[in-house]
Amino acid sequence: MPAPSQTSQVRVQERHVTGQSVAPIFEGWAPNGDGTFSLFFGYLNRNYEEELDIPLGPNNMFDQGSTDQGQPTHFLPRRHKMAFAIVVPKDFGDKKGFTWTLTR
Length: 104
What we know:
Elements: E1 22-31, E2 37-45, E3 52-53, E4 60-62, E5 74-75, E6 78-88, E7 100-102
Antiparallel strand pairs: 1-2, 2-6, 3-5, 4-7
């Protein structure tokens, strides 16, 4: 037990209502029957109340293939798992990574 003269520090997580970013999250992958693969993505909107709209383009795109891979453009607050999936060809593993750029 701490002595009365000692003070303890408590970490408090501040909850931001607005003004925070959205982070893309790779959830995993699964093989498909035809040899292709499904890649699963979600996101974390760090705001507790603010919904964000990030249209397709330089702030919401993938570095390979079409800019529009079915990713969301409207982001609800907090964590959203398995928000969408992308099917990639069977030789996908031979290529360099696949990055979802998502900036506010």
